[in-house]
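Practice problem. Given the sequence and the SMILES for NAP, write out the predicted structure.
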Amino acid sequence: MNKTGSKTILITGASSGIGLETAKLFKLCGWDVICILRTQKQCEELECGIGVRAYSADLSTSEQTADICERIIRENFPNGQRLDVLFHNAGYAQPGAVLDVPVDALRKQYEVNLFSIHEITRRLQTVFERQGTKIIINSSVLGFVAMPYRAAYVSSKYALEGWADTFRLEAPKYVQICLLQPGPVNTNFRKNALKMYRANINEEESRYRDDYQKVVARLSTERSRSRYAKEAGECARYIKKLVDAKQMPHRAPFTIPTHVFAILKRFVPSTVLDKVLAKGI
Ligand SMILES: NC(=O)c1ccc[n+]([C@@H]2O[C@H](COP(=O)([O-])OP(=O)(O)OC[C@H]3O[C@@H](n4cnc5c(N)ncnc54)[C@H](OP(=O)(O)O)[C@@H]3O)[C@@H](O)[C@H]2O)c1
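Answer key:
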């Protein structure tokens, strides 16, 4: 809680999608909202737009991530004020077959989707709230099932789930940790994934050229083709409910596909499940 008595949330990746809608909703509910965005221009727009405090850092860079955390602590938590909620949301997908993704692209995927979360959590531990800081980590349905041409993203989210499961066993009792597992949500996610595909995958020389046409077609649509896709605002409201609950669940599946795949993963042999998942190009 801050000096004025309102609660404080820190959100990463609030320039668009789930992070932006969550920032808007918490601000509307009277929370003190601090955001980390990639660029200074995005920060200025968000500060003018919804009146939150925004800090810029490219989370693929450990130095920038570490520096911004120190600055946030200095400027917002100087006298033992505490952080009520930490929402690790920033992330993106690097599409491409295992045999095609360059190691640097895989490394960058891990920098943002895993290492930045590790860095931010370690740096901010001094401002966790004794009455119960809540940490929500945005994983994915792809944090527990795989689909073709998504190995970089899938493996980063699997790793993230392992990281969070371990942290939960060790964390101080007053820290709650919840893995949010969205299925398809309409955001800039696909557009950004297509950008990373174009930047790092050499489709002309790939044995997967034909399948890549389907990948590109899927990523090119503005909205998800899934009829179960949700809007980012719905996800933000779900996050608010998680935060409002006295005790957060260890895992919070969001959208029907996440629920269905959780059941299939548990009860269907992987030889059979693979046949279903292989169709998800
Ligand atoms: N949408 C889905 O279907 C879906 C499903 C499951 C899980 N998720 C997860 O939900 C989270 C939010 O994604 P979204 O769907 O809301 O997509 P989004 O609209 O693309 O938002 C992603 C956010 O992460 C930020 N980000 C990415 N790389 C960054 C970097 N290097 N430094 C700083 N910020 C960076 C983006 O900033 P820029 O605007 O600067 O790129 C943006 O603010 C992600 O962790 C994603 O894995 C999404």
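Check your answer against the key. DSSP finds ten helices and nine strands in the chain.
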